[in-house]
Design brief:
Layout: H1 7-18, H2 33-47, H3 62-71, H4 98-113, H5 132-149
Helix pairs in contact: 1-5, 2-4, 2-5
């Protein structure tokens, strides 16, 4: 299974990110390519406890939802609601300058995978406490999902 813990998978995500331009059209959803870059950065900041988010409460227990999202073969649904702090239509970080925002995202991706780690994982709003293995899987899947949204 792909994960940012594997150098080849990280390199794949970085290569696909480089193919995104401000004018890259979306296949679904409401975000622009630039908003997607900021959304992924917000997600990675949440992972490393630099962006605080409130827990999201759902009907599926976090361990079950986590297993389905990270380890089952079920594709992620389009339009799954994100937490307001990461939602580009609500409280997500607004885009400023495309290339600078993309560089920030690539830097965050490097920081997530650097050893030794200089941060502590915080609980995920939907999945709760997670292992490093789960965080690295999520970090890959989240980027992969949104890169597919823009045909990359």
């Amino acid at each position: 299974m792909k994960t940012l813990a594997h150098v080849k998978d990280k390199d794949e995500i970085l290569r696909r990110l480089q193919s995104i331009e401000p004018s890259t059209p979306r296949r679904w959803g409401r975000m622009s390519a630039h908003q997607m870059i900021c959304h992924l950065s917000d997600g990675y900041k949440m992972y490393i406890a630099e962006r605080k988010v409130k827990p999201a409460h759902g009907i599926v227990p976090p361990p079950v939802l986590r297993w389905i999202a990270l380890w089952s073969s079920m594709p992620w649904p389009r339009g799954f609601p994100t937490v307001p702090e990461l939602d580009q239509q609500v409280n997500g970080t607004p885009p400023v300058q495309f290339e600078a925002d993309k560089r920030e995202l690539c830097g965050l991706l490097d920081r997530l995978t650097r050893r030794p780690r200089d941060f502590e994982w915080q609980p995920h709003p939907h999945f709760g406490q997670m292992s490093e293995e789960s965080w690295m899987r999520l970090a890959y899947l989240h980027a992969n999902h949104h890169l597919h949204q823009f045909g990359a």
